[in-house]
Amino acid sequence: MNRLKFIDRMAQGKVTRRQMIAGAGAFGVGLTAMSRMAKADPLVCLEWAGYDTPDHFGSYVAKHGAPPSFSIFANEQEAVQKVRAGFNADIMHPCTYSVVRFTEAKLTKPIDTARLSNWPDVIPALQTADGVVIDGNVVMAPADWGNSSIAYRTDLVSEAEGETWNIFFDDKYSGKVAFTDSEVAVEIAGLMLGYSPQKIWEMSDEELAATKPLVQKLVKNSRFIWSDPTELNQALASGEIVAGYAWNETVKTLGADVPLKYAVPKEGIFTWLCGLTLLNVGKADEAAAYDFIDAWISPETGKYLIENTGYGHSNRKAFEIADPEQVKALGITDPVKHLANGIFFQPVEAEREAKYVKLWEECKAL
Predict the structure, then answer these.
(1) Average pLDDT over all residues of the chain
(2) Topology of 146-271+348-365 in CATH?
(3) 32, 96, 264, 344: most buried by Cβ count inside 10 Å?
């Protein structure tokens, strides 16, 4: 048995203790190193539904032979609670507005960008964006970006009614719309009350209380509250609902077969930037975590996102290798301009955020 085969068999647990000791002398392999390899824990990632397919991290699978282990979450609040409760994840996929939840809970560690081969090709403005850098440390490797808006059936909803967040509060569409399981409903209610795009992230107790009747109406009018976009997509395709809170991928997925439009609501469209964060509670080899992050910010992953989900990507080279017609059709060649033109999701101060979440949960329970 040669040295490489011996180490491979040892890593798979196929080498006895006696063989390990003998092998160490024969091949000059340190017992400490071999023991560490034999006991290496799998990489564990907290991830959004749909992002756990190898298309998003192809080079990681090519190098390690298999995907990491995934735990799917519905929203970042759920994810941070899970980690604080003792779940040992190595990687989290937050957005700029939510990564602060993990940093404030002291669950993250800085990312050494020198260990990421694709970092030099990340769009410079995204390398230094708020939420990517906190207290002088890179805590999130920016990866994907896009919108949150309304996807509506153009054969069932007029343009005037589809291009406004009011569709969720209009009794005409009661039982015909679907909303996501997120306290963003509270912020949208704030917009409908005339609060500014900045105010909705810092509403006072009195301003929050004023949103409650609208949030209750949104819940009442929703046929269902979704946590997996597949549920939303199927309902839109069948006509079970005529409109829903959606991300870009819904229109990209259904657009060829369903008369669907992605709204730019007159009150404002939301924009987001998400990425990969290292958690300090993981048990896997840190090198594997860096391989996973590097795979996510590769141009190949970016090409896949652009062509298959309609999202933008942080790697500038992704736009060079993606289908030019699709890049043009999506209008996402300038991420800085794109993100600036919408209502950019902002972090909400922790104590205030808890009140937003509480209000949302109370309204869902009614």
Answers:
(1) 89
(2) D-Maltodextrin-Binding Protein; domain 2 (3.40.190)
(3) 96
